[in-house]
């Protein structure tokens, strides 16, 4: 009697080695303190911008304080309730959404490990400073938080963190190697 044939199987697949330390709980690279700082300061900047806009609305709702409710309103000095004052209110609302959105996106994307959050942070800082220029001095607090968000993305731990995320998101596989010789037609073993 002959011995039964063994079933041949492939070896187990190797685990993907990304070259970045991964948290066993989340499977993501561990966040440095700079990422926590960037996200927290971005969200604080958004909260301050919302508070500054709410203060403007409170001051604009009262006829006595409307002319000094924002610098833009002081510069243009429109009549309350006319089309120009309503247009300025629309401009201030759009500026609030734009600057708060830019700061929030910069902090959130720094938290998620995207390298372009550095440029988003610089853009958010410029937009927040422009918003402070047309509203009030209270918005300078948000400029400070936006500066912390922007500067913390340029710290060395964040550079490593961004590199780890790049390795996790797009692992480099083995590239294509051109064979030394290409055979056309029937293979030699079948001739």
Give the helix level as a range of percent. Answer: 55-70%
Number of helices: 6
Ends distance? 36 Å
Computed Rg:
29 Å
Order of helices and strands: HHHHHH
So what's the overall shape? elongated
Q: Please summarize the sheet with the most strands.
A: none
**Beta fraction:** under 5%
Query: Low-confidence parts, pLDDT < 50 over ≥5 residues?
Result: none
Mean pLDDT across the residues is 89
Derived from helix and strand composition plus strand pairing, the structural class reads: mainly alpha
Strands, count: 0
Transmembrane segments: 33-59, 83-104, 116-134, 140-159
Keywords: Membrane, Transmembrane, Transmembrane helix
Summarize the structure.
By secondary structure, this protein is mainly alpha-helical. 57% of the residues lie in helices and 0% in strands.
Give an overview of the whole structure:
The chain is mainly α and 191 residues long. It has a domain of 131 residues. The chain is built from six helices and no strands. The chain is elongated and about 105 Å long. The relative contact order is 0.16. The mean pLDDT is 89. Keywords: Membrane, Transmembrane, Transmembrane helix.
